[in-house]
Amino acid sequence: MADDKxxxxxxxxxxxxxxxxxxxxxxxxxxxxxxxxxxTVIAGIIAWALAFVAVLIFHDDxxxxxxxxxxxxxxxxxGLGWIGLAYCKRRWSSIQAGHRSATED
Length: 105
Hints:
Elements: H1 16-21, H2 38-57, H3 59-65, H4 69-97
């Protein structure tokens, strides 16, 4: 009869952190998709503007239920978006001029 002993279990951990520590995993060089952030901020401004229009449509219902403050939330988001756009444009022009690195914030 054959020996029915179980095969020895490897004590080597196979989780990604351990594999990275042993040098078995290599990080790929991944570049950011959008260094300027300008298109993202513009999309946010548009989203807040659309939210303002949607809240404006239901303004009477919101006023009756005491949730009229939602209108001001959309106005604040829209306004802060313009401040963010000014910041991103200034930062991007500074990066393009070579006054700061792309990873510096």
